[in-house]
Amino acid sequence: MNQYELALVINGKFADEDRDVALEKVKALIERFDGNIAKVDDWGKRRLAYEIQKVREGFYYFITFESEAEAPAQIEKRIRIMEPVLRFLIVKAEV
Predict the structure, then answer these.
(1) Rounded Cα distance, 93 and 4, in Å
(2) Into how many domains does the chain fold?
(3) How do residues 57-73 score in pLDDT, each as one tens digit?
(4) Are 10 and 61 in contact (CB under 8 A)?
(5) What does pTM read for this prediction?
């Protein structure tokens, strides 16, 4: 199993419940592809470096997880179509 880190930016205009639902969906995706979530870092609401879809602020989350090598591609494929997610990036973590 490989270690990965998912950087996730959720639209700052969404209500708390909607944001929590989106985060839970992302966690469920990781677990669906046999991933084990090690840590979820909540950085809170921050100003974006540039405007994305007329949004200036977003909620930042960093999720550290372990999974097989094929899982990140499947997770990215499904996160890409989630409405509240502005940006995301999965990178392989250095062990």
Answers:
(1) 5
(2) 1
(3) 999 999 999 999 999 99
(4) yes
(5) 0.90
